[in-house]
Structure formats: structure tokens, C-alpha cells
């Protein structure tokens, strides 16, 4: 009976929603509109006998922008693969040097696979917590701040706010045991976060979106002061040693 009661009281597992794909008809209409605008622009340049530089410059900028987006997409894809796979499989696949964990190159760094396993299991619950915070704390605060600029209403799209399926990954950890105070613990964490998150909001009815967030850097975690009462740590400091 006790075993059945525990199973009934156990909360159901939380799963993250898959990102909603954009309407293919809308995407096709946007591409058709952009192509039409480009052809009309080229025609007008020739019709009014403008210099060819007016056509070449936007073309070069467009090519550079596409290349930048392609490089960014490739880096995010590689980082997500490293975040979703274990380190042994990642090394065996011979991924790029920049995607390998730091403990491969620095012997004083330790592996943190157990931490990554915990993060992966906790990530759906972190998603729920962040959504609750955005809707109940951040949204009213931002809307109150924007009232002075007459930029209200400010609303998050409830169905299009989630952190994605890819959690942050710690590729190496170092705990300092020398040249530190006995009343503090100092750790350096190599963090890779190649998120497929999507956060959509509207300001005065105008939609905006934050997506495909990427971050890589070394974070320092300082636990101090150490105290003799639970929770044994008086405070926590977290900051990046260099701009991520």
C-alpha cells in the first residue's frame, strides 16, 4: 500500500515543448516579396541610369551577411551536438578542437559528466521556473518601466516562451585548494551553452523574438563565507573571468 501511495503522490515528469515551426506559406510569401523587391530595385537602377556601385554594394553586404549566418549556424550546431552527447562519443567523433572539453588539454581540469547529467534531468523544471518568473515578475516590471515611454502593452507570448531542449554543459571544472582562504571555496567552470531557446514578446503589438542563444566562457564560482550552520555557505558569487 505504501509503495502505491508513493507512486500516486509522485509528480508526473515534465517535458519541454517542441518549438513551433513557422508557417511555410508565410515563409514562401516573405521570400517571394524579397526577391520581387530585389528585381524591382535592379530595374530602377538601370532605368534611372544610376552607378553600378549602388547594386554591387548591397550584393556584397548580402553575401557577407549570409556567410556570417552560415558560420554562426554551424558553430551552434556543433556546440549543440557536444552538449547532447557524452564526452567520449564527442572525442571519438573527432569534432573541432574548439568543441573539445577543456580537460583534454589541461590536466588540472576535471570532468563534470555527473553535473551535466543532473542539469539535463533538471532542465524541464528550470524551464517551468523561468516561464513562471517571466510571466509573473519580469513582464509586470518591464511594462511598468515602459509606461513612461508610452511603449505599452508589453506581453510575452505564452505559447512561444521556452528554454529549448539543450541545457548548458560544463566541459571542465577546477577547484582551488591552494592560495585560498579557509573560509571560502573557489571553482572555475568551463561552460558551453548553445541553446535552441525561443522567447517571443510584443511591444505595442509589434512582435520581437530572442532565439538561438549561444555562449561559451569560463565562470568563477566563489562560495564564501563558510559557516558552521546549515546551509554551510553564507553567500555565492558567480561571474565570468573574461567576456563570454
Question: Summarize this, please?
Answer:
By secondary structure, the chain is an alpha+beta fold.
Q: Considering DSSP H and I runs of 4 or more, what fraction of the residues is helical?
A: 40-55%
Give a quick account of the main beta sheet: strands, pairing sense, barrel closure: 4 strands, antiparallel
Q: Say how many strands there are.
A: 7
By secondary-structure content and strand pairing, the structural class works out as: alpha+beta
Shape: elongated
| SSE order | HHHHHEEEEEEE
Q: Regions with pLDDT < 50 over 5+ consecutive residues?
A: 1-16
Looking across the biggest beta sheet, what order are the strands in? Answer: 2-3-6-7
Distance between the amino and carboxyl termini: 53 Å
- Treating each run of at least 4 consecutive H or I residues as one helix, how many helices? 5
Radius of gyration: 24 Å
Average pLDDT rating? 79
- Name the beta content range: 15-25%
Amino acid at each position: 500500500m505504501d509503495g502505491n501511495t508513493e507512486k500516486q503522490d509522485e509528480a508526473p515528469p515534465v517535458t519541454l515543448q517542441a518549438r513551433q515551426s513557422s508557417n511555410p506559406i508565410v515563409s514562401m510569401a516573405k521570400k517571394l516579396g524579397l526577391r520581387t523587391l530585389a528585381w524591382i530595385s535592379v530595374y530602377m537602377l538601370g532605368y534611372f541610369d544610376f552607378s553600378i556601385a549602388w547594386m554591387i554594394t548591397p550584393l556584397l553586404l548580402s553575401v557577407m551577411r549570409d556567410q556570417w549566418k552560415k558560420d554562426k549556424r554551424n558553430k551552434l550546431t556543433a556546440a549543440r551536438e557536444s552538449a547532447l552527447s557524452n564526452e567520449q562519443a564527442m572525442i571519438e567523433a573527432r569534432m573541432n578542437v574548439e568543441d573539445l572539453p577543456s580537460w583534454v588539454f589541461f590536466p588540472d581540469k576535471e570532468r563534470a559528466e555527473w553535473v551535466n547529467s543532473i542539469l539535463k534531468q533538471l532542465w524541464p523544471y528550470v524551464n517551468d521556473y523561468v516561464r513562471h518568473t517571466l510571466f509573473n515578475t519580469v513582464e509586470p516590471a518591464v511594462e511598468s518601466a515602459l509606461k513612461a515611454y508610452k511603449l505599452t502593452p508589453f506581453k510575452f507570448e505564452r505559447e512561444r516562451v521556452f528554454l529549448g531542449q539543450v541545457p548548458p554543459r560544463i566541459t571542465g571544472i577546477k577547484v582551488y585548494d591552494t592560495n585560498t582562504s579557509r573560509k571560502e571555496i573557489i571553482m572555475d567552470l568551463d561552460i558551453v551553452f548553445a541553446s535552441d531557446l525561443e522567447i517571443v514578446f510584443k511591444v505595442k503589438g509589434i512582435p520581437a523574438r530572442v532565439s538561438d542563444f549561444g555562449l561559451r566562457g569560463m565562470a568563477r564560482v566563489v562560495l564564501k563565507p563558510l559557516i558552521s550552520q546549515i546551509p554551510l555557505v553564507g553567500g555565492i558569487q558567480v561571474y565570468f573571468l573574461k567576456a563570454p
